[in-house]
Automatic annotation (TrEMBL):
This is Glycosyltransferase family 2 protein. It comes from the Bacteria.
Length: 265
């Protein structure tokens, strides 16, 4: 199996320490070929990032830029680089792990086993700061679970599906006009392209635990994405209405302003 991973990292002490943990987890993977493109943002030559790679199956490559750009724009830069290097042609699956994500021992072999049995075009799962081993996987995919659980760290796109999706919508994402929502938009677009979708409802990938009390910070982006796709299926329209009602709760508690219901173009 050939995997292409793309990660963006804003260079500071905390982020690069997290990135080293991700790289270390991938450096231990056997029997799977992994190509990993990493975009280092706010990069400075006097603070060069180095990684000691001992695994011949793990191909780590860096791109560097001096400034900081939005997450969706950074990922599009990585996609363009991968396309120029023709990396999609030799990849089975593509994913976008954050720099503070990591893969526990055994994850990739279990992923390969599930894929061999299920043949999915889109796979997504859950994450935790204390990830667990995959045990008796059961497919629990539905639109509600996709909206709730799918993220850059937990979503894997079969290469042919990924190519059809194309670039991220740069109107959404951390650092963009509409904060957040870039992952949700991308995975919804994948869902609309393939019926072969598998959701493993277990936290099998490592990542810091989410902070529910700060969900409102990304409301404009996620609501804007659901508004964008609401007319495409009944289940997406239902998720849009649900998100609207959540927004009213945030509005009544003064966590957001009424302007957050409008997507900035």
């Amino acid at each position: 199996m050939n995997i292409l991973l793309m990660t963006t990292c804003i260079c500071n002490e905390e982020n690069t320490s997290d990135l080293k943990r991700l790289i270390s987890s991938l450096n231990k993977v056997n029997d799977i070929n992994i190509k990993h493109l990493v975009l280092l943002q706010d990069y400075q030559d006097d603070k060069k990032f180095e990684a000691d790679i001992t695994n011949e199956n793990y191909d780590l490559r860096f791109l560097e830029i001096e400034g900081i750009i939005s997450l969706s724009k950074a990922r599009n830069m990585l996609i363009t680089e991968a396309n120029d290097k023709r990396l999609f042609e030799c990849s089975d699956f593509v994913s976008f792990p954050d720099d503070d994500c990591w893969y526990p021992e055994g994850f990739w072999n279990n992923f390969k086993k599930i894929e061999r049995e299920q043949k999915f075009g889109l796979f997504y799962t859950d994450f935790s700061s204390k990830p667990v081993a995959i045990d008796r996987p059961v497919n629990q995919h539905n639109t509600a679970n996709l909206v709730r659980y799918a993220s850059s760290n937990t979503s894997f796109y079969r290469a042919d599906v990924f190519i059809k999706i194309g670039l991220f919508d740069e109107n959404f994402g951390v650092g963009a006009k509409n904060n957040g929502g870039e992952d949700l938009d991308y995975v919804i677009r994948a869902m609309l392209l393939t019926e072969d979708i598998y959701f493993l409802n277990s936290p099998v990938i490592g990542h810091r635990d989410p902070l529910p009390q700060f969900r409102y910070k990304y409301y404009r982006g996620s609501f804007g994405v659901l508004s964008k796709h609401k007319a495409k299926t009944f289940t997406l329209f239902y998720q849009y209405l649900r998100k609207f009602l959540i927004g009213l709760v945030f509005l009544s508690s003064k966590k957001i302003r009424f302007s957050e219901f409008k997507t900035i173009r």
